[in-house]
Amino acid sequence: GNGTHPGVVFFMGIVPPDREEERILALAEGLARTGMVVLIPWLDTQTENRLVVDDIEVLVDAFLYLQGHERVDSKRVGMGGICTGASMAVVAAQSERINEEVAFINSFAGYYNAFDLVKATSSATRFEGEDSKDWVPDKLTKNMVNTHLMEGAENDDQKILRNILETGTWNQIQHDSLSKGGKSVLTLVSSPTLEEADKAVNQLDSRTVAFLRAVSPSTNISMLKADVLLMHDLHDR
To answer: What InterPro entries does the entry give (predicted)?
Structure first.
């Protein structure tokens, strides 16, 4: 139609299909039919099964681009996403560059705290307070978590850990050769209990800790000014 319309930057996050996948197109077309201008960023890191801190600023730039579009009502522009994309969108919306401008956030199946995501995925357990239940993480989620745990380890640890993952076994010499952080990664990729995962997360290397903080909406939640709509399910699918 004529005039200006509300807009949304919708980030899919780490997804298995390509950008022309029919579900993505159906989502964009469905939102467009409601009268919204839709921007769905597609970043190289999405197909690499990786979260990258620099992508947060890319999402901020995407918001500013959409907000400045001649067919968009600059006062009615929001952000949204699915799974890791939802969480990255929330982190982007906390940026001082746009946090007073983002009108709304739609977070579907996102995580709030990346440390909790690691614990839940590694232990196959969902938890809240003292309550916990068995939970089956999607293979894509588990691979993504393991990838980042490995990349955050020291170089010498990475070599040992990769060999362990490839063979599926390890010996005492390999275990003793790992640093404290490396041992924590080994625990987390070895199907620990929730208690074991909690202890291991608290002993990760500083590089991994900094990364997990950077991609956690919980870290700077006080900077989020937008109205938030949360959508979720009981399963990781």
So the answer is: AB_hydrolase_fold
- Domain 5-112+217-231 adopts which CATH fold? Rossmann fold (3.40.50)
Given CA atoms 85, 91, 97, 102 in this order, what sign does their dihedral have? positive
Select from 135, 33, 21 the least CA-distant residue to 82: 21
Structure tokens, 30: 């469905």
For each successive 10 residues of the chain (237 residues), what is the average pLDDT? 92 76 86 95 84 97 99 98 95 99 96 98 95 93 94 95 93 96 97 98 97 98 98 73
d(CA 172, CA 23): 48
* pTM for this predicted structure: 0.93
Residue extents of the structural domains in the chain: 5-112+217-231, 114-214
Residues 119, 193: Cα–Cα separation, whole Å: 9
Contact 120, 137 (CB under 8 A): yes
Q: How far apart are CA 33 and CA 44, in angstroms?
A: 28
